[in-house]
């Protein structure tokens, strides 16, 4: 097991094709690549730690786990401040996409699926280009991503 962190660090990081298909790139935090889900129904961010073979949070070494939690908190605070949401849903599922990724979803009482989970409830509605660009610009500023 002690060799695993070295292996993880040496393999190249690539995004799962489903994540690339379903989301729009925002940029990188110290550990995680951040993306906006292309579903205007909910302000919904993804964080993918840039570690090639990690599929679970426990696959990260201790320093990376601490960094991931800090980044989840940072992204959550920014998303809540920008949206004024009623609740944040934070989850790491990976049942469909095995690559480690964390969902941070702004939820509103009265949104399309409140209070149910967002998955599989209503079809995704792609962002209009201007709306996505505006949100991404605000997120980059607040997250200090260039």
From TrEMBL:
<feature type="domain" description="HIT">
    <location>
        <begin position="45"/>
        <end position="114"/>
    </location>
</feature>
<dbReference type="InterPro" id="IPR026026">
    <property type="entry name" value="HIT_Hint"/>
</dbReference>
<dbReference type="InterPro" id="IPR011146">
    <property type="entry name" value="HIT-like"/>
</dbReference>
<dbReference type="InterPro" id="IPR036265">
    <property type="entry name" value="HIT-like_sf"/>
</dbReference>
<protein>
    <submittedName>
        <fullName>HIT family protein</fullName>
    </submittedName>
</protein>
<dbReference type="Pfam" id="PF01230">
    <property type="entry name" value="HIT"/>
</dbReference>
């Amino acid at each position: 097991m002690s060799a695993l962190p070295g292996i993880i660090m040496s393999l190249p990081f690539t995004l799962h094709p489903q994540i690339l298909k379903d989301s729009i790139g925002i940029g990188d935090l110290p550990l995680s690549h951040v993306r906006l889900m292309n579903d205007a129904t909910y302000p919904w961010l993804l964080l993918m730690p840039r570690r090639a073979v990690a599929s679970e949070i426990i696959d990260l070494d201790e320093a990376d786990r601490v960094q991931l939690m800090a980044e989840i908190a940072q992204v959550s605070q920014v998303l809540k401040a920008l949206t004024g949401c009623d609740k944040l849903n934070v989850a790491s599922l990976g049942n469909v996409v095995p690559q480690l990724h964390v969902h941070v979803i702004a939820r509103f009482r009265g949104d399309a699926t409140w209070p149910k989970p967002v998955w599989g409830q209503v079809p995704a509605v792609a962002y209009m280009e201007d709306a996505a660009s505006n949100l991404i610009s605000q997120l980059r500023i607040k997250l200090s991503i260039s």
